[in-house]
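User: what does the whole thing look like in 3D?
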Amino acid sequence: MSQHSTPNPPSLNLRGFEIFEGFLDVKKQQNLLEDLRVVVGKAPLFTPTMSTGRQMSVRMTSAGRLGWVSDNNGHRYQDRHPRGMGWPDIPKSIMEIWNAVGAPERTPDCCLVNFYDEAARMGLHQDKDEADFSWPVVSVSLGDEALFRVGNQERGGKTESIWLRSGDVVVMGGEARLKFHGVDRINSGTSTLLPKGGRINLTLRVVT
Ligand SMILES: O=C(O)CCC(=O)C(=O)O
Ligand SMILES: [Mn+2]
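Assistant: Here's the predicted 3D structure for the full assembly of 208 residues, as C-alpha cells:
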C-alpha cells in the first residue's frame, strides 16, 4: 500500500517514546479538526470521574469500535458512549496517521479524544486497560502546547519532560508502552488552531 512507501520523518527518542515533531502540517491539522468536530457532534465530550470519585480535568470522547470511559464503576473500554449512543467511526484522516507510524496490519479499536482547557492536566499513569501491550499507542497533539512527562515502568524514579506542540505525533510502543506518562500543564495561547484555545490529544489504541 502507498502508505508504506513514504518514509517517516526523523524522530526523537525519549526513553523509548518516539516523538515525530511537526508530523502534521497545518492543513492536515485543520482537516483533522474538521473531522473531530463531526465526531464530537455525534459523541459529545463528557467529564470522566476517577476511581477516587474526583472528576478528571480533561473532557473526553472516543471514536471506533470501543471507547474508554471512567466512572464510579471504574475505568474500562465499552461499546457505548455514557449517554448510550454508539461511538462514531475513526475518521480516515486519523487512520492515515496510524497506518504511517503505528501498526497498519491491525485496525485500532479506539481513538480516545481528550480535550484540555488551560487548567487541565493528566497525572502520571500507565495505559494498561488493553489486552496486548505489543501494540503501540499512537498519540496526536493539536492546539496549545503541553508539557508531556515520561517516567519509568514502575511508579517513582526520575522523570523527564518535553513540550508537545500542534502536529506532533508520539508513538508509545516497545519499551515505552508501559511507561508512566502524563501531562503537567498546557501553555495556553501558544496555538491558534483551536478558535477558543486549548489542546486536543488523540490516542489510537488496539484494545482486544
Ligand atoms: O494528552 C496526552 O498527551 C497524553 C494522553 C494520555 O496519556 C492518555 O489519554 O492516556
Ligand atoms: Mn496514557
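In plain terms: Residues 112, 114, 122, 127, 139, 146, 148, 164, 181, 183, 201, 203 surround 2-oxoglutaric acid (ligand 1) (CB under 6 Å). Helices lie at 26-42, 92-101.
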